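Q: Here's a chain of 159 amino acids. Please give me its 3D structure as tokens.
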Amino acid sequence: MDTLSYRTETPNAQSVEREWVVIDATDQVLGRLCAKVAKILRGKNKPCFSPNVECGDNVIIINADKVRLTGKKMTDREYLSYTGYPGGQRVATPEVLMKKSMNKHLKAGYHPLFIKVMKGMLPKNRMGRRLIENMHVYNGSEHPHEAQNPKVIDINKIK
């Protein structure tokens, strides 16, 4: 066999096989859970990973209301946002963001606390903004993505 004919195959958007996975967030620590979900969203757990191609899976997180934070982080941690107007700096705690996720007027699959945490773990560019749309978070155990035949994975088995 001619060893000079080996070629490195790089994946492109058409050749990547993307799946739907369901993760149960019951009694999981928020930061550790989101770090593993970020790895799945980027596709770093696959052998065909490429940093410039969107090769991750779509992730459905259920029971997001049962996630926990260690220590006093639920009340003491502060997330800052800015409206763009003078004096428009807003402060929110994880407790406030969890209550906001119960709002019926929010888009289905949108959870402000998980979005805030995941944005810090994904690339700060166009691809990071596209990847965050592949995460769907629901407070209960029901989700409307049964047509995609998602497979349930145990997040504790992923390194």
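Q: Can you summarize the key feature?
A: Residues 30-42 form the longest helix (13 residues).
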